[in-house]
Write a structure and sequence with these properties.
This protein is mainly beta. The chain has 3 helices and 48 strands.
Amino acid sequence: MSAYNRSAYTRSAYKLAGLLASVGLVGAALVGCSSASGDNSGSSEASSGSGSGSSAAAAVDGSQKAAAVLADNQDVHAESDDTDVDVDGAGVVGVELKGDSASSDGAGVKVDGATVTITAEGTYRLSGSLDDGQVVVTAPEAKVTLILDNAKIANSKGAAIDVTDADEVVVVLADGSANTLSDTDTYAEDAEANAALHSAADLTIGGSGSLTVKGNGNDGITSTDGLVIQGGTLTVDAADDGIRGKDYVVVNGGTVTVTAKGDGLKADNTEDADRGYIAVGGGTVKVTSAGDGVDAATDLVTTGGKVTVTSEASDDSSAHGLKSGVITVLEGGTVDVTSSADALHGDGAVHLGGAGTTLAAGDDGVHAEGDLVISAGTVKVTRANEGLEGKDILVSGGSTDVTSSDDGVNASGSEATSSEEGDQGGFGGGGPGGGGGEGVGDFIVKVTGGSLVIDSEGDGFDSNGTAEITGGTVVVNGPERNGNGALDVNGSFTVSGGTLLAAGSAGMVVAPDSESEQGWLSATLDSAVEAGTTVHIVDSDGKVVASYVTSKAAQNIVYSGAGIKSGEEYTVHAGGSASGTGTGGLAESGELGSAEKIATVTAGEAPEGGGGFGGGGGGGGGRP
């Protein structure tokens, strides 16, 4: 399939393929394609197809929006007013906890020592303390509401609250109340209930009070069905996972703070393609974890709220900030992640579509096995090994800033196949834009809109396949060392619109293809200009076409914009001034003043001798 006309899987096939891939169950039977149906699918401009050796997860359409992703998942069980309960209303059954016993006059309540069992549908208000006891809900096919009104429950033998059988349980935190739950510090390996608050039914938590949960033996809060948080102030400290909903975890409001030695928020249904998802639509979520901060077996979606994650592994294991098995869509709200591994990790696709996202990573800022799409919002990778890494990367909108110690943007993957184009390149430096020395894989970086600013110590704008710029603004503050280049593209590299300014070292120079529809120039200077130098591109009439202020020492500058005409001569000047709002050092305007001419170039001609492995005509080194 071509890079631009890939037939799409149906949405359900995408989901199933990505889910199975994430748990290692994909077989060759899923490599076929079928036509898409409805609005939930469609091809991404960034996608390169599922070629030989691709995983099924890489076929997930990264251009999908949040509404389409959520519509294809299991419906959320909770109504918006589920936790809007009159705690003193008629029909509310009072349950008074008395240290080592309890009392209630409700017909649906049984008390046996320090064990309170609720057996019938209804609303129950719990107040007081159980020093070493338990509240059990066993009400088949019933909806039970538990109002926690300054309730404190500790259990040295198991869960503090254990819902063994019900259709749905709603936990309401009474206005102004402070409630606590704590459990045993040891569970049997086969224990069905292994969290301080455990539910075998759909669980909803809301209200305006507070709940502190201490998961001493395993998880803090767990539902083996769906889990929805509507409100309240929740503080969870867990020996393993903080908050886990097998089918889904949905946060619509409240303030949720999780400290976990395992994963922070987790949905782990790997058997059903429409489950195992996490969605944040409102509220505040703060996670500190030794495992993954937020881990969804299938989809991870934000449409609002504020998510802050710090994931730091205490051993050699990976602790990703946000992780999904099929697709991550950050479409609304704010997301701030600091992680010892990848800040955002997708076994399938990642779509940054409107959220304000700030990422600091010990490994990749954003890593997608398939599509990595940025269409809106702000994305700031403040620290990473590689900034953005995916099989196919599309930037169509938004404002993206990447700082990396290695590659800034890297289209790559596990495939090692080469096209004839790459094979012909060999070590001879395959001409302008042709990254000599490496094969051309089935990968692409494409920029059609928005702004992309890169500050890299390794390669800046890197594709182990091909690259295209058709719109938007790309500024690369590339490496100072000659072993890397501001641009590195193994295959074709075309520019037909937008603006490109790439500045970096001169040892591994790559320029756009001569077949590009928009003019470009590449200037290798006799010596590097220092950081803070204003550089101007000037046409033959003496008009300043572009002005740029370097943030590092630079000896090669590549520029493409609407004012560049192939075959015409341009000069490069150092000095003068730049003015106006800039993008990554590229200024709105500039004045030559007493600037000194430091190079003369012809647009469309790459400099000689900059080809890394011995390439003529500016062919780059083609490093991974």
